[in-house]
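Supplementary Text 2. Reproducibility record for the structural model of the 250-residue chain.

All settings were left at their defaults, and a single model was retained for analysis rather than an ensemble. We include the record here because the model underlies the residue-level annotations in Supplementary Table 4.
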Amino acid sequence: MLDRSQKISLIVAPHGSSRSWTRVVSLPTLVGIGVGAVTVVVLVLGLTLQVADLSARAREVAALRRENAELRGQGRRIVELEAELARMQELETRIRRWAGIDVGARAPGALAAGSFDWQREETLLAEIPSLAPLRGWVSRGFERESEGHPGLDLVQQTGTPVCAAAFGVVRFAGWDDTYGNLVVLDHGNGFTSLYGHNEALLVHEGDVVARGEPIARLGSTGRSSAPHVHFEVRLEDEPLDPAFLISLPG
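Retained model, structure tokens:
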């Protein structure tokens, strides 16, 4: 049984000091202090574990939120891609009918219904040259007459990057007496695009370029009176009005 009258002396002597102090406490007081200290340590450990658990849960919730946001973004991208694919298929059909080409006679790699490979189809969507090569204003439009103008002239400052209207392969990159520094891209599916009067060329024959990738710098070479890019689109070598395919920049 605990003797409540028992006293215990606590002597504290700081290291390197000749002084010390003594405190006399009862055994129950000392036990109470010990129990209190143990209780505080247990509470601190418990709170630390709870904080660690809450932090882990917060990180898990944040990761789930990011994953959910990514899934929502992918869902929106799929819907946009489906709409773009449908638009491109309709556009291709209209172009072929307009040009008098058999709609059923699609070249290898044409947009196809059936088994749907998203990565493949997203690449194929870029085959139709529907991106304006630069932001500028039209100084001369498309003229169908035999002696007309088979493309668009887009004006901008010398040195402005001229970009590919679609994914494609460089079929020609060099000098032309009429178009000066000229780039011709083959987009497959019967589509080609032409970019003339450039100050400098950034690609070589055989290069594969992405939609929107710079392929030249705008200039005024060849038969040109001012800095601009002459932009043509052809389907089975038949000139098309580029304004029919692209959204003209402002």
